[in-house]
Here is the input.
Amino acid sequence: MQGITQERLAELADLNLSYLSEIERGQANVSLCIVNSIANALGITLSELLGGIPGEIINADFLALIQQVQGLDESQQKIFLKTAQGVLSGIRET
Here is the structure.
């Protein structure tokens, strides 16, 4: 994406290289805090990292929710993520 190695990205995002590799392969659960760290390390916005979602779609309420989730510890963030995934799955089925 930015022409940097995985090693450099791990260093910039303050992540373990093997964990970053697992994230890249979709084999690790990742918190919003980690996603935000990766975006910052890449010098891009969270919306760009999340598939190029236009900034105007990510409204103030969504950003406030992200900030609240970032204030949770890692285990709480995992619970939130699993819950949100369940809610999204239910919404898509209707």
Q: What stands out?
A: The first helix runs from residue 6 to 12. The mean pLDDT is 82. The radius of gyration is 14 Å. The CA atoms of residues 63 and 69 lie 10 Å apart.
